[in-house]
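pls design
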């Protein structure tokens, strides 16, 4: 059974309850055939001591959206997704507003997947560029 875009987004947001994603206020907002998009507010909750977005919060956002994408695109119920490698380049700082993580699949294997995640501000300026490799574990 193929789920609608709205059903997929609802399921992604529901799985965030009582997790780091809820703590960071990550919200999944779009899904297409090849991408998943989530947003996160930038405020004191995700700041480093000097008042800008913490790189660790950006990486958590990127891994969350890429891992969700791997699960969605595999379209299998009995799998668990794990991030096994992540690297991030932080390009621009941001103090307030929101950031948007656009995860695009680069390699869609049955066991491993490679994702590129662009984290941008409202003006579509690049904040961070992240590469994530995920592993599919069969339950």
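designed seq:
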């Amino acid at each position: 059974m193929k789920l609608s875009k709205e059903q997929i987004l609802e399921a992604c947001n529901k799985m965030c309850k009582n997790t780091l994603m809820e703590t960071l206020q990550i919200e999944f907002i779009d899904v297409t055939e090849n991408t998943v998009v989530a947003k996160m507010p930038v405020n004191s909750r995700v700041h480093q001591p000097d008042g800008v977005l913490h790189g660790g919060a950006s990486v958590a956002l990127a891994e969350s959206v890429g891992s969700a994408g791997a699960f969605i695109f595999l379209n299998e119920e009995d799998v668990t997704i794990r991030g096994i490698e992540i690297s991030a380049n932080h390009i621009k700082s941001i103090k307030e507003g929101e950031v948007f993580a656009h995860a695009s699949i680069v390699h869609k294997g049955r066991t491993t997947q490679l994702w590129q995640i662009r984290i941008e501000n409202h003006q579509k300026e690049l904040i961070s560029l992240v590469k994530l490799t995920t592993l599919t574990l069969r339950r």
